[in-house]
User: What shape does this take?
Amino acid sequence: MLQLHKVSIIGSGSYVPEKVLANADLEKMVDTSDEWITTRTGIKERRIVENGVCTSDLATKAALKALASAKITPEQLDLIILGTATPDNIFPSTACQVHQKISASNAAAFDISAACCSFVYSLTVGYKMVSSGAYKNVLVIAADALTKLTDYTDRATCVLFGDGAGAVLLQPHEQGHELLYSYLGADGTGYEFMVLPAGGSQMPASHETVDQRLHYIKLRGREVFKFAVLKMAGLVNDAAKECNLSLDDIALIIPHQVNLRILEAAAERLNIPMDKIFVNIHKYGNTSSASIAIAFDEAKQSGRLKKDDIVVLVAFGGGLTWGVSVIRW
Ligand code: ACO
Assistant: This one.
């Protein structure tokens, strides 16, 4: 029988662009207000890329930080997995761009597309690759430059998104921060809830698609809201049961930073206090694939993760997709 290895996170890093887009800036661009955005979403500002900067640039910066924190050189990597909803190109993969930019000459590389769940999906695939014994040094990156696909004439979407990247380095477990459990799911009947209609094989880019602004994100926010609250609460409950833990055993939940009201409603359903939910949406908005990876790195850097803490990463997003990972720190 296959001997499974335990898996550890041995390093992490994150990066957000320097340029800040505050609610006050958006007030000058569309018919909105700081008050509406703050009360409906919890977002005060977000970071956005400059012209000419793309997803692989963000991913590379986060990757180099994760490698430095893990004390691993790019040549030692044997696999790069990159989760993104905004690849540099439809093909080849953005993971291959990062491969080139960091000179990871011995690594295989591929992308994973699971919208806002791309980090947890990528982490889970990396976890299984290491636990099977197939790979030893696996770099998992999640990066998005969503503001490049955001319609800044559409107030319903343009207030929500920001750009950024996060990364972790996985290895077979000796000592360190062990990944205990991961679970993924999907429901394609919600495919239309969040979609970028044009630019793929279903609707190739044309003058018409550009005129109709179909190369920008379209969102059915109310449907997503209900789904996200129920899914977040259900996933945390189920993961605790699978790991033989009670909700009280969880030290910190790091959710996809989608909307403060969604996080508060899910915390209430779980009867978990908000100080156990990591929140940084006020600073970065929704960075999609990258949000949990950035939050995880911030939680680590700020000393929120203590030895033996149980940490739950929980994601839900376009597709629809969802996923949860449990870590013993
Ligand atoms: N400023 C002012 N008014 C606005 C804005 C804005 N930026 N955006 C919408 N409105 C208006 C609408 O036009 C509407 O006006 P009306 O009542 O006159 O028609 C009113 O505000 C209410 O609009 P709703 O869309 O119902 O607002 P809601 O309270 O649902 O908030 C939001 C919208 C924030 C998008 C919410 O639905 C949400 O968070 N949804 C889930 C998150 C989500 O979809 N995130 C996107 C990424 S997907 C993911 O990460 C999983």
